[in-house]
Specification:
This protein has no helices and 12 strands. It is mostly beta strands and about 120 residues long. The radius of gyration is 15 Å and the shape is globular.
Length: about 120
């Protein structure tokens, strides 16, 4: 299983966290694989060490994979969670009050966005 944290908006527009797991199937010598999931595009990203982006909506429904550097995300209900290098997020709050994101480390953060 691979753990992913989902960020989504409820009917009132408030953003929330939800953890879920993606099941993996034993494929023998090549390891354990999930089912295919279609994607539209992939974007590689770097942000400055000082990155602190106020409340915003995700531009697209997308996975974010943190390659280097950690972040703190705050929901509209003031819940905060920290995510380290290697974390995977599914960001779906494309409407509503959004979330806030800031770097936890004083270094360039690198990530991949996989748009769904």
């Amino acid at each position: 299983m691979i753990q992913i944290t989902r960020i989504y908006s409820d009917a009132n527009g408030d953003s929330h966290f939800e953890n879920f797991e993606v099941p993996l199937k034993d494929k023998g010598d090549i390891g354990f694989l999930s089912d295919d999931e279609p994607a539209k595009s992939i974007v590689f990203r770097e942000v400055a060490p000082s990155y602190d982006y106020d409340f915003h909506n995700a531009p697209d429904r997308q996975y974010i994979v943190l390659l280097e550097g950690g972040i703190e995300i705050e929901t509209s209900l003031e819940e905060k969670r920290s995510f380290k290098t290697g974390s995977i997020l599914l960001v779906e709050d494309t409407t509503g009050k959004g979330h806030r994101t800031k770097n936890l480390e004083s270094k360039v953060r690198k990530s991949i966005f996989i748009k769904l």
